[in-house]
Amino acid sequence: MSGIGKQFPGVRALDGVDLRLLPGEVHALMGENGAGKSTLIKVLTGVHPADSGTIELAGRTVSFAGPLEAQQAGISTVYQEVNLCANLSVAENIFIGREPRRRGRIDWKRMRARAAELLRRLELDIDVSAPLSSYSLALQQMVAIARAIDVEARVLILDEPTSSLDAGEVRQLFHVMRRLKEEGIAILFVSHFLDQIYEISDRMTILRNGRLVGEYLTRELSQVALVSKMIGQELAELERLHGEARTFDRPLVEARELGRTGAVEPFSLTIHEGEVVGLAGLLGSGRTEIARLLFGADHATGGEVAVGGAPAALRTPRAAMAHRIAFCSENRKRDGLIPDLTVRENIVLALQATRGWTRPVPRDQQDELVGRYIKALKISPPNPDHLVRNLSGGNQQKVLLARWLILEPRLLILDEPTRGIDVGAKAEIQRLVTELSDGGMAVLFISAELEEVLRLSHRVGVLRDRRLVADLPNDDTLTTDTLMETIASGGRA
Amino acid sequence: GGSGGGSGSGGGDGSITMGFAQVGAESGWRTANTKSVQESAKAAGITLKFSDAQQKQENQIKAIRSYIQQKVDVIAFSPVVESGWDTVLKEAKNAKIPVILTDRAVDSKDTSLYKTFLGSDFVEEGRKAGKWLVEQYKDAKDPVNIVELQGTTGSAPANDRKAGFQEIIGADPKFKIIASQTGDFTRAKGKEVMEAFLKANPDIDVLYAHNDDMGLGAIEAIEGAGKVPGKDIKIITVDAVHDGMQALADGKINYIVECSPLLGPQLMDLAKKVVKNESVPARVVTEETTFTQEQAKTALPSRKY
Amino acid sequence: MTTAILDRLGARGRSVPAKYVPVLVTAGLFVAMFVAGGIRYEGFATGQVILNVFIDNAFLLVVAVGMTFVILTGGIDLSVGSVVALSTMISASLMAGPGWPPYLVVPLVLLIGSALGLVMGYIVHAFDIQPFIVTLAGMFLARGLCYTIGTDSIPIEDPTFTAFAQTRIDLFADLWISPSVVIAVVVVLVAAYVLHYTRLGRTVYATGGSEQSALLMGLPVGRTKVAVYTISGFCSALGGVLLSFYMLSGYGLHAVGMELDAIAAVVIGGTLLTGGSGFLLGTVLGVLVLGLIQTVLSFEGTLSSWWTKIFIGLLLFVFILLQRLFSARRRT
Amino acid sequence: MKRLLWPLLVLAALLAVNLFFTPSFFSVEMKEGHLYGSLIDILRFGAPLILVSLGMTLVIATGGIDLSVGSVVAISGALACLRISEDGGVFSAVVLALGLCVLLGLWNGFLVAGVGIQPIIATLILMVAGRGLAQLIADGQIITVNSPSYKVIGGGYLLTVPFGILLVLVVLGVTAFLTRRLALGVLIESVGGNAEASRLAGIRSRGIVITVYAFAALCAGVAGLMISSNVSSADGNNAGLWIELDAILAVVIGGTSLAGGRFSLGGTVLGALIIQTLTTTIYSVGVPPETTLLVKALVVAAVCLVQSPKFRDKVFRRAGPRSSPRPAAEEKVRVTA
Ligand SMILES: Nc1ncnc2c1ncn2[C@@H]1O[C@H](COP(=O)(O)OP(=O)(O)OP(=O)(O)O)[C@@H](O)[C@H]1O
Ligand SMILES: Nc1ncnc2c1ncn2[C@@H]1O[C@H](COP(=O)(O)OP(=O)(O)OP(=O)(O)O)[C@@H](O)[C@H]1O
Ligand SMILES: [Mg+2]
Ligand SMILES: [Mg+2]
């Protein structure tokens, strides 16, 4: 690709960007949130027509009218948000468009068998005939990957495929990527996890504000240099935050034998004021379910909750919010944002909901709050009247986070809050969480990134197979390795 | 007994069950028609099975088919349209159930499919309206500007009343229909269309409305435009429902052609005869008249609908 | 009685995937309704009554099948009723006027219907306009074309056509159906096959689930959208042909409001108007439920015009409510 | 406001057509102490449609649809006229009729939000049964009333302006205030944009949906009073027949998506005016009834095409001097040169 330019109304997303992708290499596409990575990928695969520039594939100039043509030309893509059809079964999502057929009709049996086998290669053993909507976001991401790698392709593009995967899945994915690389497939990879970039990529292209910064060999560029090229300035050394075991004496939320049949086994958990409790566990282990129960997003089928010492009925999100509990959900597309509303409206939405429709949040207060968080989280473009649907993935995540931060709740439940967020902003968010908890806010922190959990939490709850198996103080003995061990052994060790 | 009286085997033994498939309840006229049938059935001791087709022919066919299924003694219905009854009427004939048409005819070539047809003649109504108009303006030299408010586009009364009227006035070139538009048989539409007519055509002499309701709506529009209905603009309508007769008596309408909905008593008589296998005339025209303003004043107190 | 059936259904439902529950519940309620009718009215619980529901609604069934395709993609087609009317009108006028033979007229009508659908589908897809307004324009257009052909109803007297229309296919024991029923059943089977066993069918579901995702997954979304409107146009035209068998006439006011009946049948059958979820069997049941309500009304036989409407509303309400309650209970 | 540019152009074009056929079309005169003219007529006869469309806009914004408005129009008129013909109390009749309408709206809302029935079916129930109810109230007849004060609502004048127009302005003002000044609008849009996300944001979506259906029914009720008052009679059979289609069309022309989310009150008013202008144009230009629908189809098609950016794109591209349809290819020349 050379000289690619793309202009959206009011935003210059790409400006003269070049990209070379060689067979048999893993090429990382790097840049801050909103730098233009996803847009570049969409231009490459024909989702958006380019305003300028040319695309060559194996020496021939091409221009795709849509993803279908790109796919036919051998480019297989996993786009940033999970773009699958939740109403179809897992097997169909993997095979739709190229279903195995027998005598002209779709061979459902073979399709299911092949899907199950494909997923088993990614170490997943799930019911492939169940609708995709019944699985968690991380699993859906894996299904999307499975779909992409099964295609006979010359080019594989992965836009933040690992944003909600945990270490095990990432390892599995990398395993597959290496094998494909050896087969001579060109892989374009986007991720905000620098460790992953350094582990898998051979070369990288860095974008900043829609412009090309340069192309580098991964092993020749240090992490610090990479970050400074991405954000255009030196990043102050990442504070070595580390949560520590402390004792808190004022319990805020106490769950006793709370559970929901089919979702999580009954668990007991106490979160104190000012305490950050992390939840660790593998994909589908029930972290999200716990969060949803505490927020009243799902009905508990047993157990009780006390808030501030008094029993509380958290039957609806509204009820939970009345107790000043906030919940930033992991699936921003499905459970979070209203794509047709503006950044401003999305940020003040929860605040407005608590006030009811008769008392609108005054305009100047809106401006103040929204302006503050646009700046603090570096939401770009920094225009509060931009539609959320037109923001980049990471910036959308920031908007969602801002919605709950302005509520200043007593308990903030964060489910994968840093999903798809770039290094700079991630540090900022972590700093915010620490600050808030120092100010007395309780935080329940869920992240697939164990390191992040350890860095922030005072205490870590470990889940396995939908059961809370351990509740560990975050002292010096707790490391990612010991945490992994606990998860693996189911807390018995 | 909810089990229905459909057990009569088609003979003349005691009580008669009649299946009546009504068009719908689209107008006050139709409602009066329904009431008349229901009341006369009760008076004549006939068990009535009634169904409302909501203006849809397919519903009427379904209803007739279900009457055949229920083995009623006689079927009567007011066809929504003229065509398309052969199949179901043949089924009735095969089941040996006699059929009486009311209100509108069917255009089947095979007249053995029904025993008789009882009802008004819409074309004749249009002619009556036209004749009165020709009579009124027989001395006039100037062209006569007519506007027409048609019934629902495509419906039989609209088609026929238009055709009958046209047939008569078409003979004299001084009669000119300068605007013609559908008013859907309703007052609201009649008023709306007339407002537009009044603005687009400054010089209107006569209004011909296919029913009273549209005429009544138009009267409001004419009054709103500062003209006097019945004087500045002469008004002819069809139906003679109570409100229309009132307006006629008040001098706001000039002439009404009656189209009587009270078919019930005649229908029951025919039904009894048909069931007993007595011969009946193939065509029974309802007794209908026309009203001028003076006639309306005398007739008004005794109008039932 | 009814509860027993539903209980049994519920018991079996435990092993049924959740997506089949609404259809099963609808089927159960349909049976319950039939049984209740049989108890209440003499001569109701006979095979022919059920067959009559099919005979009387064959055209609606065909139209609803086309509508199912459209609704599954998340679209809507308001033009169906008018296209049905236009088809009867064209058939009748061509056979009555120039005296064309049916084997020329029928294919021509089917072609015109499909072409209308194709054009609407193309506009929806190519210009990104809401289907509601495109097909509403189509509805006006087709109805308007009817009136330009003529405002009177035109009888069909072609001997072949009438003979076919009046054919009775005798089954066992005095039961009979019309050829239209056979055609409708074939249409249903073919459509079910297409939806379940072909790529087109699966793309229809995917498009309805999430159009954007389907596009990004490299599915031919545009082609599919054009295809479903074409299918719907074809089905409407075929429905129109069946209606001309039924009525033996062409008329501009035929099938007024049939689009609502078709949409209602599809939605009662458990298909979501937002697209992506539903089954053709549901649509068949939806049509049967509407037909059965009509049958119940004519057996009731004593309702005045307005009570008829209120009664239809009530029956519909009770039916939908039970359907909702039972499916909801099954899901939790 | 740029979004409304194209509908505005269509409206202007329609009016221009009228001017061509009827030169006096734009003249507004005073007649017997009130404004008189075709433009006034369009507003006056369009008033009920505008009202119904306003209610429909909010319903559609929540991702729903209300098919029952036509029946509610009929019920409201029938009940009010029945009361007036019985004892003459106009005020109590109006209150009673509107009260019933709100109840019916609550019923719709309850079915949609409480029971979880799909809106189109939930409101279809009332659409069918409601028409029967209206006929039941009126006993299938047309109830004629002779009350000058009732006549005011739809046929009267206040300060030379038709009362109906003022009523529309008031309702429009109140709606705009509730939705745009207060926070109702953004909550409705968020429920329509993403219902689950709204629930998780703590929005009482059930309450909002029910409110919106009640509001739609209230608007329809007022429209029903207007229609029946205009002709001093209630026609349970025909009043408001098919008005739901026109209302939905108005909303869609106005740029609100049937999928829910963003809505535009101004667009809806414009859409309703386009429809009414079209109707009036058809009457005054003298389009024969048989071709009315063809004209309507053409105009609707034109409106939707001209509103589509993709269509304008294609047309302008094609009209432009030999530029290739794919911009990438065009640029290629520049880059390689
Ligand atoms: N459809 C659109 N309409 C308008 N602007 C858009 C659209 N899509 C993307 N943009 C803008 O283009 C810019 C680049 O977005 P892009 O999604 O490519 O960022 P990204 O590098 O993928 O970021 P992230 O890491 O957050 O995913 C952003 O400023 C975004 O707001
Ligand atoms: N009632 C519900 N409605 C919608 N989605 C639900 C519901 N219950 C659970 N889910 C979804 O099912 C998924 C399963 O959650 P689970 O807690 O098992 O995952 P997890 O431990 O958070 O792991 P990961 O998110 O990494 O897969 C959740 O992501 C949640 O979004
Ligand atoms: Mg991105
Ligand atoms: Mg999770």
From TrEMBL, chain A:
Residue span(s) of domain ABC transporter: 1-234, 245-490
Entry keyword set: ATP-binding, Cell membrane, Membrane, Nucleotide-binding, Repeat, Translocase, Transport
Gene Ontology molecular function, alphabetical: ATP binding; ATP hydrolysis activity
Chief localisation class: membrane
Entry membrane topology: Peripheral membrane protein
Domain of life: Bacteria
InterPro entries per UniProt: AAA+_ATPase, ABC_carbohydrate_import_ATPase, ABC_transporter-like_ATP-bd, ABC_transporter-like_CS, P-loop_NTPase
Matches recorded under PANTHER family: CARBOHYDRATE TRANSPORT ATP-BINDING PROTEIN MG119-RELATED (PTHR43790), GALACTOFURANOSE TRANSPORTER ATP-BINDING PROTEIN YTFR (PTHR43790:SF9)
Protein name per UniProt: Sugar ABC transporter ATP-binding protein
Organism: Nonomuraea rhodomycinica
Phylogenetic placement of the source organism: Bacteria, Bacillati, Actinomycetota, Actinomycetes, Streptosporangiales
From TrEMBL, chain C:
Record-linked CDD domains: TM_PBP1_transp_AraH_like
Localization: Cell membrane
Pfam families linked: BPD_transp_2
Membrane topology: Multi-pass membrane protein
Transmembrane region(s): 20-37, 49-72, 78-96, 103-123, 129-150, 171-195, 226-248, 260-293, 305-326
Keywords tagged on the record: Cell membrane, Membrane, Transmembrane, Transmembrane helix
InterPro entries assigned to the protein according to its UniProt record, in alphabetical order: ABC_transp_permease (IPR001851)
One of the record's GO molecular function terms: transmembrane transporter activity
One cellular-component annotation, GO: plasma membrane
Name of the protein in its database record: Sugar ABC transporter permease YjfF
Lineage: Bacteria, Bacillati, Actinomycetota, Actinomycetes, Streptosporangiales
TrEMBL record, chain D:
Keywords: Cell membrane, Membrane, Transmembrane, Transmembrane helix
Residue ranges with Basic and acidic residues bias: 328-337
Statement: the UniProt record of this protein carries the keyword Nucleus: no
One Pfam family from the record: BPD_transp_2
GO cellular component: plasma membrane
Keyword set includes Phosphoprotein: no
Protein location: Cell membrane
Single GO MF annotation: transmembrane transporter activity
TM regions (residue ranges): 35-60, 91-113, 120-137, 157-178, 208-227, 239-258, 265-285
Region (Disordered): 317-337
InterPro entries given in the database record: ABC_transp_permease
Record's bilayer topology term: Multi-pass membrane protein
Primary location: membrane
PANTHER family noted in UniProt: ABC TRANSPORTER PERMEASE PROTEIN YPHD-RELATED-RELATED, GALACTOFURANOSE TRANSPORTER PERMEASE PROTEIN YTFT
Protein name: ABC transporter permease
